[in-house]
Amino acid sequence: MHVADVDFAALFHPAFSSLQQAQKFVAAIKAIPRDESPVKIILHQVGRMVWLGDRIEEVAIGRPALPLTFFLIAAEAAAKLARGFTKEGQSRAHVRLFFEQDCPEPLRQRLVSMLGAGPMNQLLTTRDVVDVLYDIRCDVVHEGAYFDFHMPRGGDDTPLINQIGDRVVIANLPLVVLRDVVLSGAVASISSLLTDAQRSAATS
Prior knowledge:
Blueprint: H1 8-12, H2 19-30, H3 39-59, H4 65-82, H5 91-102, H6 105-112, E1 115-117, E2 122-123, H7 126-143, E3 160-164, E4 167-171, H8 175-193, H9 196-203
Helix pairs in contact: 2-9, 3-4, 3-8, 4-5, 4-7, 4-8, 5-7, 6-8
């Protein structure tokens, strides 16, 4: 399958209660002209980055830092597009904005449950979790270090201990949690940018 042929409704399905709702939402967003709103670009950019992250997971099993990087690129893109940011830099700041502002509280709670501070698996703040994830992304992008971070995999809920810089971090949940938070956060961000009529067409 080629990235140009992504089924966005199927991809974003985890952000909705049914595939039919996802299909309706995606169809409504695709009908909005690009020059009226960035929502179509957000949908496509997030979808493509998450899709690519999924493909990397297929060929790099047990290396969650690689797909994680693509999921954070998607979050950064969504935040920058939603705010009309066209300059360079401020990547960490926009990843923080996505998770701290664009993601509703239930998604932030889900994100926080992913990681804990070692050695006692203490609760982290949303900012702490985002910064740990961003540090992992930087290790991949700047140093090619994609092999040191580990997370539980499907069916195995055993927390895994990681050393991230000078911090000990406990990964409590699998990577799919981050994937679903990014998809659902993007839908929330898109929805916040719609007019009342557009929102009605996408959700009613």
